[in-house]
Amino acid sequence: LELFATPIKGKNESIVGAVVVLHDVSKWRRVEQMRTEFVANVSHELRTPITAVRGFAETLLDGALEDPEMRKQFIKIIYEESDRLSRLVNDLLELSKIESGHAVLQFEVCEMNNLVKTTVDKLVHQAGQNGLTLEAHVPEEPIFAEVAKDRISQVLINLIANAIVYTSEGGRIDVYLEEAEDRVTVRVQDTGIGIPKEDLPRLFERFYRVDKARARRSGGTGLGLAIVKHIVEAHEGTVDVQSTVGKGSTFSFSLPKRQL
Ligand code: ADP
Questions:
Q1: Residues flanking ligand 1, CB < 6 Å
Q2: Coiled-coil regions in this chain (predicted)?
Q3: Residue 235 burial by Cβ neighbours in a 10 Å radius (0-12, 13-18, 19+)
Q4: pLDDT band at 53 (very low <50, low <70, confident <90, very high)
C-alpha cells in the first residue's frame, strides 16, 4: 500500500483534519518486478551465445585458423550458437506478438484428426533418428474445431519436440486426439526422463528449465512451453502436465470446439 496524507488547516494554521489516500500498488509492483526479471533473463540468454560466438571467432583470428581440425570445430560452434541466437529472437518476437494481442489469430473450422496426423508426420523422421517411436492415435470420426491452424500445429510441434529431447533411445511418444462434449483435447505422452513434482507448477514460465545444462545442450530456448501456453490461452483453452520422474510425462491441451 502507498499512503498519501495532507493536513486540512483551519483558522490560525491549526490542523482540523486530514485527507488520507491509500493506493494498492501491489499489483503494479508485481508487474514491474516481472518485467525487470524478464529483461534480465533475456539479456542473460542473449549474452551466452554472443559470448561464445565472439570467443571462438577471436581464437580463430588469433591463430586457430591454421589448424584445420580446430578451424572446423570452432566454426561449427559459431554456427550452432548463432542458430540458437536467431531461434531465441524469433521465439521472443512470437511471444511478444501473441501477448500484446497484435498477432491476429485466423480462426477457421478445421478437421483436427488431419491437423494432428500431418503435424506428427512432420516429426516422425526426427523421432526415428533419435531411436524413438512416434505415433498418432486419432479417432475414425472426424472432430471439428474452430482454431488458428498454424498456431495449434506449432503448439503440437513444441510439445513433440520436447518429448523427443527428453526421452532416451528406445522410448515412445504417443499423441492422442480426443473429444468430450464441447471440447477437444490433444495429449502428448512420452516415456522420457519425467519432471520432479516441485517443478511442475513453474514449467510454463518463460526460461524456466528443470535441468539447465541438459536444456542448453538440447539447443532449446526455454520459451517453447511459454509459447504453447500463450497460444492455447488465446484459444480460451487450457494446458496441463502430468509426470513421474523416470517414467515419463504427458502434456496436454484442451480447446473449446467453438470460439464465441
Ligand atoms: P526448453 O527450450 O528448455 O526445452 P521449454 O519451455 O520447451 O524450454 O521447456 C521448459 C523445460 O521443461 C525444459 O527445459 C525441461 O526441463 C522441461 N520439459 C519440457 N518438456 C519435457 C518433457 N517432455 N520431459 C521432460 N522434461 C520436459
A1: 162-163, 166, 190, 192-193, 195, 203, 208-211, 215, 220-226, 249
A2: none
A3: buried
A4: very high
